[in-house]
From TrEMBL:
Record Gene3D superfamilies: 3.30.300.20
Name of the featured protein: RNA-binding protein KhpA
A Pfam family: KH_KhpA-B
Assembly and oligomerization: Forms a complex with KhpB.
HAMAP family the UniProt entry points to: KhpA
Location in or out of the cell: Cytoplasm
Similarity remark: Belongs to the KhpA RNA-binding protein family.
Xref: SUPFAM superfamilies: Prokaryotic type KH domain (KH-domain type II) (SSF54814)
Species per Swiss-Prot/TrEMBL record: Paenibacillus xerothermodurans
Any one biological process term the GO annotation gives: peptidoglycan biosynthetic process
Length: 76
């Protein structure tokens, strides 16, 4: 899952070497914190949050196999 987020984010940004994904996991939820270069935050979020919403949808769909709730946060 972490690799999926990393690949998608690197394709969107101008500074792919600064893309980092941290994972916070507890019993019921897994939170992926996506960190990108400050200039690329807008590219990851997209107009009216459409790209961020699509990224969250893809991750949620890929997480159906697990019985945990998955969320993606974009951190600058």
């Amino acid at each position: 899952m972490k690799d999926l987020i990393t690949v998608i984010a690197k394709a969107l940004v101008d500074h792919p070497d600064e893309v980092k994904v941290n994972v916070d996991e507890d019993e019921r939820e897994v939170t992926f914190k996506l960190s990108v270069h400050p200039d690329d935050v807008g590219k990851v979020i997209g107009k009216q949050g459409r790209i961020a919403k699509a990224l969250r949808t893809v991750v949620t769909s890929a997480a159906v196999r697990e019985s945990k709730r998955v969320s993606v946060e974009i951190v600058s």
